[in-house]
Amino acid sequence: MSKKPPKSRRSGRQHRLAQRAAPPKVNPAPAGQIGGQYRPLSEADLKDIYQTALRLLSDLGMGEVPDRLRDDLVAAGAIATDNGRVSFPNTLVEDAIAMSAKTFVLHGRDPDRSIEVGGDKVYFGTGGAAVNTLDMETGLYRPSTLKDLHDFTRLQDTLDNVAWFTRCCIAPDLPDNFDLDVNTAYALMRNTTKPVATAFTIAEHVDPIVKMLDIAAGGEGKFAKRPFLKTHISPVISPMRFGEDAVEVVYECIKHNIPMSCITAAQAGATAPATMAGFLAQSLAETLASLVMVNVISPGFPMVFSNWPLVIDLRSGAFAGGGGETTLLNAASAQLSNWLGLPSGVACSMTDAKAIDAQYGVEKGMTSLAAALAGGNLIYESSGMTAALLGASFEAFILDDEMHAMTYRTLRGVEVSEENLGFDAICAAILGDGHFLGADHTYKAMERDYHYPKLADREQPRTWAENGALDAWDRAKTKAQEVLDSHHPEYLNADQDAQIRAAFKIIDQS
Known about the structure:
- By secondary structure, this protein is of the alpha/beta class.
- It has a domain at 97-412: Trimethylamine methyltransferase-like (TIM Barrel, Alpha-Beta Barrel), CATH 3.20.20.
- It has 19 helices and 21 strands.
- It has helices at 9-21, 43-60, 67-76, 90-99, 146-156, 177-191, 206-217, 222-225, 244-255, 276-297, 324-339, 358-374, 394-412, 418-421, 423-431, 440-449, 461-466, 472-486, 494-503; strands at residues 79-80, 86-87, 103-106, 115-118, 123-124, 132-134, 141-143, 165-166, 196-198, 229-233, 236-237, 241-242, 260-264, 267-268, 303-307, 310-312, 319-320, 344-347, 378-380, 385-386, 391-393.
- The strands form 6 sheets. Strands 5-19-18-15-13-10-9-8 form an 8-stranded parallel β-sheet. Strands 7-6-21-20 form a 4-stranded mixed β-sheet. A 3-stranded mixed β-sheet has the order 14-16-17, with helices on one face.
- Helix 5 (146-156) runs parallel beside helix 6, helix 6 packs parallel to helix 7 (206-217) and helix 13 crosses helix 18.
- The longest helix has 22 residues, at 276-297.
- It is globular, with a radius of gyration of 25 Å.
- Mean pLDDT is 94; it is low at 1-5.
C-alpha cells in the first residue's frame, strides 16, 4: 500500500498565508453597534438645556401656527396667546415625550435589511439634497441629474455599512415638482431594497405616490402595513415658528402611516444663538415642538427626533459643514435626545471640502466618529456628501463606507473575557516559539476582532510606487466605476414596472 507523500512545510505555510489573506467570514463590527460613550454634556448641563427649552415653549411659544394644527394643539392643552403665538405648557411637552415611540422598525423591502431605530444602536445612512455631482471623469462639479440619483442609489445598494438610503441629490433637470417627487421615489424602489427616504414637495403629492408604493408593496394598502419608505420633513422653521406646507405634509404622511424624520436645522449665529448652550436650548425646543405636533395628531407615531445643529462661518455667513463646533453640537444633540429616550437623528460628515482630500478626511472622520460615540441612532449626511451639502460624490460613497466600518469597529470596543485576556496564549508563546504568529488564539482573533480595509493602502512605499502610486481618490474611483458597470439591480418586477409606468410619467435614463 503506497503512502501519500507528506505535505511540504512550504505548502503548509502557503495554506496558512492564504487563510490569513482571505477576508474574514464574518463582519467583525456590522452596523448597529452601541454608542453613548462620549458625553460632552454633564447631567446638570442636560437639565439646564432641557429646562430652558421647556421655558421657551411655554413662555415664548411657537409662531405662524396653521389653523388646523392650532385647533389640534389647543384641544390637547396648548394655549393660543393674544400675540398670535401658541404656548406649550410643560405638561403637554412631557406628555408627548412619554407617549412617543421610543423604538420602531425602518423596514426594507428586503426584511433582512430592516433596522430598528432607537435605544443605543448607531446606524450610518445618507441624506442631503445636493444640486451638484462631482463628475468622475473631470473631477469637477456639474449639476446633478436624475441619472445620478439612479446611479447613487444602486452604488450604495452594494455598501454594507450604509444602513438606509435617503435621496442624496435632487434632479434640477426635472423642472416639474410632481415629476421630481415621483421619479425620485421610483429611483429608490428600482435600485435598492434597503429602507429608503425622500421628501414631498407639497402634501398633494403624498397620496398618488403612496399608490405607486402600494404597487411595489404588492397591492392596495400593503405599503401602510409595512412602510419601507420614510419622509424627511422640516415642519419647524427657525427661530420658533411652523411652516404651513410642511405641516400639511405631516398630516398626509400620518394618514398613510409613513414614518418621518422631523428635522430642525437651525444655524448657529443666524437662526439660533451663536453660543453652544443657547443654540442647543432653542434647537431642542423646536424639535420638541415637532414631537408635540406629531403625538397630538397621532400618539406614538414613529418619528425620528432629528435635531440637526448646523453651523455658519460667522465671518462670512457661509454654511460650514465641518469643524469642531459641528462635531461638538451634533454629539451633544445625540446625547440630549438619548437622555430623553427619543430615537435620535443627527447630521455629520457634511465636509466643506470640494475635493477628496485631507480636509475631507479630517472633517468627515471627526464629526461622524463623535456623533457615533455619543450614540446618534441615525447619522444622516454621513455618506457621499461634499461641499457643505452642495455636492455628492461617487468616490465619497466608497471611502465613507470604509470610514463607517472603522467607526463601527471602534464602537464595538474591547471584550474582556478569560479567553481574550490570553494568559495561556501568552505563556505558550513565550515558552515556545517566542511569537504569536500562527497560533490558534491569534487566528481566532484575526477572524473575529479585526477589520481589514478594502481600500486603504498598507503596502510598503516601494510596492505602492510599483503599483502606480495611487491615492485614495484613485482607488475609490476605480471601485465606484466597477460597481456602476456591473451592478444593475431590478427590484421592481416587469408587472410592477408596467403598472407604475401606466400611471405615472417615468423618465428613463440612458
